[in-house]
Structure formats: C-alpha cells, structure tokens
Amino acid sequence: MYQAKIMALLFVAGDQGIKEHDLADLLEIDGAALRQNLEQLKVKLITDGESGIQLVQYNSTYKLVTKNENSELLTKYFKAGLGTKLSQAALEVLSIIAYRQPITRIEIDEIRGVQSSGSINTLLVRKLIKENGKKNVPGHPNLYVVTDEFFDYFGIKSLKELPKIENFKDASEIGEINGES
Questions:
Q1: Per the confidence metrics, is the pTM higher than 0.70?
Q2: In the sheet where 53-58 sits, what is the strand order?
Q3: Model confidence over 120-147: pLDDT tens digits?
Q4: Rounded to an integer, what distance in angstroms lies between the CA atom of residue 147 and that of residue 153?
Q5: pLDDT at residue 176, as a whole number
Q6: Residue 61: strand pairing partners
Q7: What is the DSSP secondary-structure string of 149-181?
Q8: What are the strands, taking DSSP E only, across 50-124?
C-alpha cells in the first residue's frame, strides 16, 4: 500500500535520499510498518527483471539507484552528452563557488539557506569543482574551487570573464532603495 508512495518520495529526493524517520513522518506510519514496506519494495525491485532501479540504504537514509547491470548503458548515455544539463540547485552552488572560492559546504549552505551536499556531489562527479585543501577552523571542512572542466563547460578562459557582482544588492537593500520596508 505504501510502496508506490515510498518510490514517489525517493524519486523526487534524488541523490539526497530520505532518512527513515522522515519517511515515517511523511507517510504517517510507525517505524516497523515502514521497514516492512521498505524491505518488500527492496525485494520487489531486485527480483523484477524489468526494473532498472533498486532500493538501497546508507545508514538510515534510503535512495533509489540504478542497478549495476545498467552501468554500460548509463556510461554511454553520459558520454553522448545527453545528461549534461545541470539542475538549478547545482548551478546556484557552482556560481557561489566560482565567485567565492575557496569556500566550504557550510558557507555555501549559509548563502543559499538550504543544504547543498547533493549539488556538491553532482558537481564533484562531473569534475566541475574539486576539493582544494581544508579550512583552518574546527572540523577542518573541505574547501571547494572550480576546475579546468568548469572553464571548458562554460566556454570561458578565466573567472574574470564572469559577470561582475560587486554592484549587486541583497533583497533587503533593494527593498529599501525602492521605498519598501
């Protein structure tokens, strides 16, 4: 009964997946019922020869991923350039990194107001950004910078070719300028 709803939620969650307790809350069911449905869905997808996806669990997070036997086909898809479009979120993260590099994920999250690890992982896989050392603060978070592939992807030779942002105002300053409060 809940398997279709679980699949729909995990599909829209994408690479980020959804934590078990969040799934239970969204579906308004207890943990035991959720785990039973997740296990049934996992078996159903694995045994269905017509399904190209499987349910996986990483710690308490669940995701839908492609089955390993489709890896050659997916490689062909990406090599053909059909999967090269970036999501709006990934483009936001990429622009923040380009303008503010080197920058940590936490700093990116603070600028965007939302969690950015999924977009960062996408950009790392596509080699548009890379880790470039650690910030000298507690926890020593990774610092991210753009790569040569970034310049190739956007057809530019340097960051100087990016539009200037020093004249940009944040939303509150724009409202004050327009007489709004």
A1: no
A2: 18-19, 61-66, 53-58
A3: 988 998 889 999 999 999 989 999 999 9
A4: 10
A5: 39
A6: 19, 58
A7: HHHHHHT-SSGGGSPP-TT---HHHHHHHTT--
A8: 53-58, 61-66
